[in-house]
Each structure stands twice: as structure tokens, then as C-alpha cells.
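Fold this complex.
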Amino acid sequence: MDFAFTEDQEALRDGVRIVLDTECTPDALRAFDIADEAGRAEQSQNRWAVLAELGAPALIVPESADGLGLSDVDLVGVLEEAGRAGLPEPLLETAALAAPTLAALLPDPAAAAALAALVRDDVSFAVGGIDVTPGGLVSPTEVSADGTLRTPRVVGARDAELLLLAVRDAESGWQLHAVAAASCTAVRTPALSASRDLSTVQWPLTSDTLLAYGVAADAAVGLLADRAAAGTAALLIGLADRMVALSAAYAKDRHQFGRPIGSFQAVKHLLADARVALEFARPATYRAAWSLATAQPTLSHDASMAKAMASDAADLAARVALQVHGAIGYTWECDLHFFLKQTWALSRAWGDAATHRRLVLAQLRAR
Amino acid sequence: MDLTFNPEHEVFRAEARAWLAAHVPARPLPSLDTAGGFEAHRAWEHTLFEDRWSVVSWPTEYGGRDVGIFEWLVFEEEYYRARAPKRVSQNGIFLLAPTMLEYGSEAQKARYLPPMAAGDEIWCQGWSEPDAGSDLAGIRSRAARDATGQSWILNGQKTWASRGAFAEWCFGIFRTDPEAERHRGLTYFLIAMDSPGVTVRPIPQIDGETGFAEIFFDNVEVPEDQVLGEVGAGWSVAMATAGSERGLSLRSPARYTEAADRLFQLYASRGGPTASADAVAQAHMDAEAYKLHTYWTASRVARGHAVGPEASCNKIFWSETDVAIHSAALDLLGPEAELLEAGAPGEWLDGYLFSLAGPIYAGTNEIQRNVVAERLLGLPRG
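Structure:
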């Protein structure tokens, strides 16, 4: 029993934080927010190049496939830092979802080609086609008469050269595809947070792009959803930490009645409740990363628990942060809204807290 | 990172499990807040002590096994899993002993720890006063040196002393320097409850049983060697106890994971009603999150670090988790929840009443929130 990060893991996280403190400042998020699509693409490409230089996208790709050969336990701290910074780029989708999913399918040639693009050409990935519901995973993709598929809310399609897309039909179960951006049409879906790159993607269903089908695809998609829940929990922990820190700093600085508002118990207790929720969501999130890294039989339970607790903790932190900031927090000028909007999106992405509570119960029933 | 117990821990677990299976009374003991129940629980402490299970983490010379923090957590998991009796010696072994091991003289440790471990001497806590609850530094009970300079004379009143009706000893804080600023001038005393001048008035609790008591001190003479720590340093000595009370030792996570498991069984046995689904899942997750957080903190401690100010979050979380678990159980029991029956309904009701004390004792959760805001978030004092 040693529930702790190694010095190397702490150093990796610190390194990522230092880089993001320069590359992903609130001013950078503001510039991103007001940029047009081309401007956002350019800013994202520049930031992605820095992340790629750090090795972040290929962090958990095995060394045999030219990755860094690290584990989900190394990655969780990096994702937490991405959340803290409000990083708009698809690091979760590329490093935590596409990379290990493709690596697990090796030596399949399509998976190998896609993984090589991720590792050697530093391409980012879009991921979509799976919705998490209390009853399990569902496929939101519509099939047209001509066989074209239409998948809503694909994340990261603007800059991706490759899309990892899942689709299920009632008879044959899940299929997993790696689709080149050139062979599909992505129509941007406006979202509250500029940092959420959502598209509706039309793509042709062909065997050329097929990575897995049948039992193998069912397992891969199930694992991908667990990875997404655990990874999104890490982003939310980072966001919650950032919002609590911003609000505590503001409460020390802002004076009313001749005193810092943070000296009032009404304000203290709001922030303390958010801090406590974060304190206990954090080990649940780290445990999910360990369960991923070590393929624990309790992984689905652990990932759902992490997502439920992190979603609730981040939602509470967002609610408290806005209340503590007061009217200034309601303005676009204040930095807070970048983190609020990401939180509101991510707390519901890959299953909200209530959904994951039901999934946890289902896991308990199966024990 | 490794969240599995190592083989030595598992050997220890198997040994504890086997011993508990062979020794835990088949029928629950009578309530420890009755005279008979108190003695029945004391007898159970003797049984634990005889086979060195009463204080596993203590040094062997005082009756322990000198095992590490993970073995202690493993023992607690097995203890709650076995549904073993409540620990009547809890105030002594979990609150006073860590402080005594840190601040006590060798003579004090040798005198007090072994009978505490054996259950021969049960301790109560004399901290709160009628006008010093959350504002603990407002203590007015006082101690002054007698003419010989060899003893202290204690006067005043303590209240809400759990086990106070039946305990042999009391650890308490008294004001020794009335001129000093509030947090200074306090001293930590060890007081025999049969000392002349000590009067105990049991207070019936919400359930009618005498779980706690008022203690009156009328010129009670206490020898110099019953001061714990430095004279005038009582506040910092007491805060060390408060640290263990809120931190790792008062409420082991097993207590909540066991209760959450029973809650899930109750939920399943009632057909898994949708109305309770959220609460049951949340109770399970919160209990498990507290366990994980404890493993996290214990791993820090095992690496030689201090517990850290994050521990101030613990008490808020476990006390509210406890209320939520029991409240969810009463909801599942519905119209049966109010019945004072033996077995499941009455047990959940007892647990619910007990859980409601949690957000109040050991520093109210409102005080704890101030601590979190000031120490962890750096907010200014009000």
C-alpha cells in the first residue's frame, strides 16, 4: 500500500504546470475566446506543438510503439493540470482516449498507422459516438439511407487529422473506426465554452477505417468510456482547484464593510464546503487512474465513482466561485467564466454525477 | 502508487479476522451507556487486551503490537466487519494516548498506558464547560498550586464528558494563569475521578441513557506528576489531541464503509427503490472516498510526513457522511423507522441518533469550516 505519486510523477506534473502557466494563461484563453475559427486553429496548433514537445500526447503509448511508456497514474496529474489551466486542446481525447485505445489494438495495421500519426506526426485526435446513460452506453449516431453516418458532439474535430469514432447497431454491436478528417465533413456546433470544440461529423461507414467490431469493439468502447469518465474527472479536479483558488484570492482582496469579505463566516463556509468536496473527490480520481493502469476488476465502478464525485465537486466549486465573486464574476472581463463554462460542460460530458451514481449502484449489484 | 495491501498486511488481516471470529460476542452487548453495559464492554476490553488486540499500534511495552498505520487500518476494517462491540476505552486509547505518547514523561506512560490498554482504567474527556464549547479557549475552570508547591487545587465545572458517568479517570484542561491571554495559561491535567471534591452528575442523553456527564471540581487536589506537558502549554497539548480526534485516529473509515455496505444490503432487500438510489450510491461513494483519503494520508505518514492541514476536512466529511448513511437507512425503513425494535430497525435508529452528535462534538462543523477556510485557504480570521 502506497497511495502516493513518485517524485518523477510530481516533477512531470510540475513541469506541465509551469509550461501551461505560460502557454495557457487567462489572457490566452481570452484571445482564444474572441478569435475566429482560423485564429483558434492557429493558437491551438501552436499550443499543441508545445504539448507534443513535452511528450504529453504519447505519454502512455508503449515504448515499443515509440511512446513514453508511462501509465495512467503519470497521466492523471497532467490531465489535472490541463483542467486547472482550462486547456482548450483535445489532450484528454488524444492522450487518454485515442492513444491507449489504439495501442491496445496493436498489431492491427489500421491501429498502428493511426498510432504512428499520433506519436510521430503529433496529430491530435477527435473522439465521439458514445453517450453515457444510467442504463449504459448508447450510440447517438444517425444512419442515413445512403449509409452515411452522422455523429453529433464529436470533441476535437477542428484540428484533428484523425477521428476515433464509435457506432453501434442493434444487431452487430459496437464498431470502432479511425477516420481521416479528409474523408468526413465536420460542422462546428456552437457551445457555451469556446474551449469545447464540438462538431457534428458525417462519415462514410467502410471497412477501410474499421479498427474493431463485435466482442473486441464492445470491450474497447466500454474501456474507452471508463477512461473518459476517469480522465474527465481529473480535468474537473483541476478546474475545481483553480476556481477555489481564484475565489479564495478574491475573498482576501475584496473589501466590504471595511473588511475582506473572506473574513465573514458566510463566505468562509461556502469556500470550505467546496474545498472539502474537492479534498475527497481527489483520491477517488487518483484511484481510478491506478485502476486503469493496473486493469483492476473494479475499474468501471472506480471510474464512475471518480466522475460522480469530481462532477459534483466541480459543480459546487463553480457555484460557490460565482457567488463569492459576486457581480464581477458574472462579467466576461473576469477570468472566472472560462473555468465555469468548462466545468458546466465537463461535469455532464461522459455522464453526469447522477448517471454515474446509477452506474456505481449497478456495479454494486453485480458484486 | 499501489493500492493493494502487501502480503504481511494480509497475514495480519487473516490473524485479526480469525481472532475476531472466535471472540466477538454472538449477541450484542448491552448499551455501554448503562452501568451493566459499561462493565460488559470493559470485560470485552480485557479480552482484547489479553491477546494484544486492544491497541495494536502502541509500543509492545504498553500492551500493543507496535504495528504501522496500515496494520491499524486493517485491524479496524476487520473489527467493524466483525461487528465487534463499541470501544468503551475510546477516549483514552484514541484521544489521550497519542498525546501522552508525544508529551508524557516516561513515568506517566508507564503508569497510565497499560491499564488504559487493558480497560482497567477508562478515561473521559474534561474539556467543554457550560460557557466554553466551540469557544474552547474560554475555559474558566481553574487550577492553582497549593501551599506546598507539590500539588494543584482544581475548581470549576466540566460538561458533556462522554463516559463521564462511569469513568475512573478524566483528562482535562484548566486555567492555571488567569492573567494570561486566552490560549495561554492553560494546563492539561490527569485527574482520578475518585479524588475528594469530584462530583459527577450524569446527564441523560436524547435516547434517555447516561452517555455523558457534568463533572464538578471543588478544591480537588491533583499531584504535580499528573500534569501532561508543560504548565501553561495546555492549549497546544490539547490541540495535539484535537488533531488526532479530527485526523486519523477517532473515526476509522471502516466504520463508514461497513455501515454503507449494510445500507446497500437494506436497499437491495427492499427491492432497490428508485427513491433511495441516489442516497445509497452517494453513501457508498462517500464512505469509500473517506477510506481512500485515509489511505492517502496514511501513505504520507508512512513516508515520514506530517498529517497536514488537509486533515481539518476529515471531521466535516465523516460526520456528515455518517448522518447521510443513517438518514438514508431510515428513509428505506419508512414507517418502520421509528420503531424501537431489536434488530435492524432499532439499530439504524440508534445509529442515526449517534450520528447526529457527530457534527457537534470534537469541534462543531461550523468551527471546522472556519479552520478549513483559515488554514487551508488562507482566509483572514473574522
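Strands of chain B lie at 123-126, 142-145, 151-162, 169-175, 186-192, 198-203, 212-223, 227-228.
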